[in-house]
Amino acid sequence: MSYSIRRLTRNDVDAYRATRLEALINHPESYGTSPEAFSARTDETLVTQLTNLTYFGVITDSGDLAGIAAFAIDDGERERHRGWVMQVYLKPALRGTGAALALLEAVAEHARAHVIQVHLMVGAHNAPAIRLYEKAGFKTYGTDPRCLLVNGRYIDEHMMVRFLDEAPGKTRR
């Protein structure tokens, strides 16, 4: 299946809602938002979200949204040098095709114009996602124990970073 990566706009709100809800329902332990809380959000709220953050999507050759990732910049006076990758999700049909890595690279390329490093958090149990992020150049720098409480179960989250102002493969001390 072929695909392309593009920025999402307010016109993608319905496809975004469906894809994000799919992610939250199928992988509740991977996100801080519950499907119920997300479902209660209005289209106006989601359009504002799509406008305030930078979203990228994986678009199939049939025009369907098959993956999402969001990028946000810290707004604290002393934190403006870093950004966050959030809400990463790829539909199962495109997993293993390189689409997830291409999506992350699109976010990183955009981020380079704004920040020098990007952070993300991923469930410590989620080995496939951790491998993907490592392949995309992220390194684990810590673990947030009991970060989420999902269905009575605590989820530890690894904190990962990718330095955009360093050569690939360079080790930071």
Commentary on this structure:
By secondary structure, the chain is an alpha+beta fold. Helices cover 30% and strands 35% of the residues. The protein contains five helices and seven strands. β3 and β4 form a beta hairpin.
In short:
The protein has 173 residues and is an alpha+beta fold.
Structural topology:
Elements: E1 3-7, H1 13-26, H2 35-39, H3 43-52, E2 54-60, E3 65-73, E4 82-90, H4 99-112, E5 117-123, H5 127-135, E6 139-150, E7 153-163
Parallel strand pairs: 4-5
Antiparallel strand pairs: 1-2, 2-3, 3-4, 5-7, 6-7
For this entry, give a set of tags.
single chain, 173 residues, alpha+beta, seven-stranded mixed sheet, 5 helices, 7 strands, globular
- The DSSP helix count reads 5
Please mark out the parts with pLDDT under 50 across 5 or more consecutive residues, or reply none. Answer: none
End-to-end separation: 41 Å
Report helical residue fraction.
Answer: 25-40%
Helix and strand composition category: alpha+beta
Shape verdict: globular
Strand content: 25-35%
Major beta-sheet overview:
7 strands, mixed
Number of separate strands: 7
Mean pLDDT: 94
Q: Name the strands of the widest sheet in spatial order.
A: 1-2-3-4-5-7-6
What's the Cα radius of gyration? 16 Å
Element-level helix/strand string: EHHHEEEHEHEE
